[in-house]
Design goal:
By secondary structure, this protein is mainly alpha-helical. Helix content is 68%, strand content 0%. The protein contains five helices and no strands. One of its GO terms (molecular function) is protein transmembrane transporter activity.
Length: 165
């Protein structure tokens, strides 16, 4: 890297003042500053692009790792499901074999053969606030529904008869 100290910068400034002249020096300095700024922005953009590409590569690797883990989990679930189905069929076949060899009183499953299912609890859905808010404002004003709360004193003052002038 170029090692530029304060003494070298002063020497460059004096040479530029002599070569360019005092009239054109501010314009040249502005131009050089603008070019240096553009170069700095370009370097920063390149650095940002390199960082983005590195992060993108890392994200791709992470995505591949997650996908392979998901495939492994899916495979293990499928194998355990197959094992469960096999065990279930073995157990149910052994129960059916035992039930066919014994009397019906030992395995009383009910008269219809199916168990009664109780309905699930459902909330009564009391949404009176929602229903009250759904009434249009024009209907409330027409029907005389109070939409704003007032204190008793404010209501008395509102409806107090006016004194004649």
């Amino acid at each position: 890297m170029i090692d530029i100290g304060l003494s070298k910068m002063a020497l460059i400034g004096v040479v530029a003042l002599v070569v360019i002249g005092p009239e054109k020096l501010p314009k040249v300095a502005r131009t050089v500053g603008t070019l240096l700024g553009k170069a700095q922005r370009y370097v920063n953009d390149v650095k940002a692009e390199v960082n983005r590409s590195m992060e993108l590569d890392e994200l791709r690797k992470m995505k591949d790792n997650v996908e392979s883990a998901a495939r492994d989990v899916e495979h293990s679930i499928q194998t355990s499901a197959k094992d469960f189905e096999k065990e279930w069929s073995d157990v149910t076949s052994s129960i059916n074999d035992a039930a066919s060899g014994s009397t019906a009183s030992e395995y009383d499953w009910g008269s219809s053969g199916a168990s009664t299912v109780m309905p699930a609890y459902s909330h009564p859905r009391k949404n009176w606030r929602l229903k009250r808010g759904a009434v249009p404002q024009w209907y409330k004003s027409r029907a005389g529904v109070r939409t704003k709360a007032q204190s008793g004193a404010a209501r008395v003052a509102r409806f107090r008869p006016q004194k004649p002038r």
